[in-house]
Write a structure and sequence with these properties.
- The longest helix has 28 residues, at 128-155.
- 68% of the residues lie in helices and 0% in strands.
- It contains 10 helices and no strands.
- The chain has helices spanning 8-16, 26-44, 66-77, 81-99, 103-111, 115-122, 128-155, 158-170, 182-207, 215-227.
- The relative contact order is 0.17.
- By secondary structure, it is an all-alpha fold.
């Protein structure tokens, strides 16, 4: 059943390419995929935790939700561009703080990867590993990120900045008043950014031979190359 994606001859050919550490070589395939995911976490996700890790990375920068774009435009129209810029910056700062909490959850998901998961990733599309991680961790990450972002709003001053922004905007004559749930919005945007960065490293490993920086990665992803 575990070999349903392969013919018997193809599977035997695959197994013959790996040291028989477990009698079948399956641990090597699983280990290679775990290494690839760990690379995505260590090389890409950690970039997001640095100052401006979100704010100066156009691929993941958190922009204002649609209902706040009119707030941004309204502030700029009355000469408060610097306040509008600061509002955007502190949202990204909060996300940078939250992502520091992600690594233990990712490590747990990678550690618990089964061979069936690994097989599906190896023979899947160019974002199969990222999708596995997303499916395995999104609920836990949201639960971890949401309170951290709420606390981060206080730590980085986002709560005061946005209270000031919303108050000033709502005082503009004839505008429709707003009161957005920024914690939920930034939590989801931070999650999107994390998985985008994991996908960057996965694509590198799948398509760029020089990104396969260990013998195990080279041997495991050579099997994917034969499938293509």
């Amino acid at each position: 059943m575990a070999f349903s994606l392969f013919g018997c001859a193809e599977m035997q050919q695959v197994m013959n390419q790996f040291p028989q550490t477990d009698g079948t070589g399956l641990l090597n395939i699983s280990g290679g995929l775990k290494e690839a995911l760990n690379n995505g976490i260590s090389k890409q996700v950690t970039k997001l935790t640095a100052t401006d890790g979100f704010y100066k990375n156009e691929a993941v920068k958190i922009l204002l939700p649609e209902e706040l774009r009119k707030v941004d435009a309204g502030l700029r129209s009355i000469g408060l561009s610097s306040l509008a810029d600061e509002g955007l910056r502190v949202l990204n700062r909060a996300a940078e703080e939250a992502v520091k909490e992600a690594t233990p959850i990712f490590v747990d998901a990678v550690t618990n990867m089964s061979f069936a998961d690994a097989r599906g990733i190896l023979m899947g599309n160019e974002s199969a590993a990222t999708s596995y991680l997303q499916n395995s961790t999104s609920t836990a990450l949201y639960g971890k990120f949401n309170p951290v972002i709420k606390n981060s709003f206080t730590k980085v001053g986002a709560d005061k900045v946005w209270t000031n922004i919303i108050t000033k905007y709502n005082s503009i004559p004839l505008v429709n008043k707003v009161n957005p749930d920024l914690t939920d919005y930034v939590t989801n945007q931070a999650l999107n950014g994390v998985f985008k960065m994991v996908a960057v490293e996965e694509k590198n490993i799948r398509t760029n031979l020089s990104s396969r920086t260990s013998v195990l990665l080279q041997r495991v992803f050579a099997l994917q190359d034969k499938k293509m």
